[in-house]
């Protein structure tokens, strides 16, 4: 028996089902089959989701589940699960819970002792990350920046010092202002990419430095759904003069030569052999 069939035959489960972010062809076979087989679909906006369900001839009843009624809907869904019925959760587009409501519901379902089964698929932050050309070995998903105040400034400061890629969402109305704020925070030379309208007809990737990307959207008004990706901070290698200064501090002068070179190399993120060569030149 296939894993998907096994899950569908078990009673009283919540399925977290990813839906397309623009291209209806990105709906997976498993997602269609799951939505056809469950007893109820909890949708962020039933009007939006009805178009998708109609396209795939899915007639399963729907229940609205959004940030304003998540707690009360969780109780209703638990009642369905207790009766042996299975439920699917979908958002308007993409993977549920990723910058969408749902985590409270999932937490309550798990606390009640029921299984929560992911049915993976489209996700705009991951889609953008996979095609932007920025480092992907480590990244942080931020969602939307705070619109203003201290929280916005603090997060921008974190981005300024970040050693890995950050993935944000942004409104087309606020994109230029956000890019300008980032450039004003000593990040104008940082690698960045704006991915817009992913999987849709006008899908576009604009990559370059933050200054270049900002200039592009100052001249071309942004439209559509946007993912903003910011590369890691640019590591600047210490100059010989900076290393010599570091070797000459009273703390360093008190150390043996080898340990002295090792400590400075580690602090300045350069090779120990380079620092030791400079040390020998100083001694001569």
Describe this structure in words.
With 284 residues, this protein is α/β, with parallel strands linked by helices. The protein has 13 helices and 10 strands. The termini are far apart. It has helices spanning 3-9, 29-37, 46-55, 70-82, 103-111, 124-131, 149-161, 175-187, 210-219, 240-247, 250-253, 257-268, 272-283, and strands spanning 13-17, 40-43, 62-64, 87-90, 115-119, 139-144, 165-170, 191-196, 204-209, 226-230. The radius of gyration is 26 Å and the shape is elongated. The chain folds into 3 domains: 3-122, 3-Layer(aba) Sandwich (Cobalt-precorrin-4 Transmethylase, domain 1); 125-230, Tetrapyrrole methylase, C-terminal domain (Methyltransferase, Cobalt-precorrin-4 Transmethylase, Domain 2, 2-Layer Sandwich); 240-283. It has a 5-stranded parallel beta sheet with strand order 3-2-4-1-5, sandwiched between helices.
Helix content: 40-55%
Portion of residues in beta strands equals: 15-25%
Alpha-carbon distance between the termini? Answer: 77 Å
Biggest sheet: strands side by side, in what order? 3-2-4-1-5
Integer average pLDDT = 92
Q: What is the CA-atom radius of gyration, in angstroms?
A: 26 Å
Instruction: Give the tally of structural domains.
Output: 3
Let me know the number of strands.
10
Contiguous low-pLDDT stretches (5 residues minimum) are none
CATH architecture of the largest domain: 3-Layer(aba) Sandwich
In CATH's first tier, which class of the largest domain applies? Alpha Beta
Let me know the largest β-sheet: 5 strands, parallel
Shape from CA axes? elongated
The ordered H/E elements are: HEHEHEHEHEHEHEHEEHEHHHH
Structural class: alpha/beta
| Number of helical elements | 13
CATH topology of the largest domain: Cobalt-precorrin-4 Transmethylase, domain 1
